[in-house]
User: Fold 50S ribosomal protein L7/L12 from Streptococcus cristatus.
Amino acid sequence: MLDIRIETIDTKSMTYKILRKYSALPFSQLKLRIENHDPVMVVDDLKLDELRRVRELIYELSGIGTEVTIKDSTGIITLGVLHNIISSYEGIMADIEELDALIFDEED
Assistant:
């Protein structure tokens, strides 16, 4: 699992607006989680689409000056590590598609 925590906020209204776009949590719960430094979003680190969504969220929040912490089972990770994870999964998916194409071409 990968969780996202908000450390500091420059623009509260924009931060909450962005979080609401990515989370189904009510405003009051988001606010409480931020105040308590609890995760505002938790995703499965084995699902590529969820990792991409988290990356988009981090980019948007960083763009307005909101500081975000990313944690996995080993502790805090950087955005660079998240990029590497996503790139690895994308490479694996490309390899699988290539192998599938070869297998199905041989069957025909």
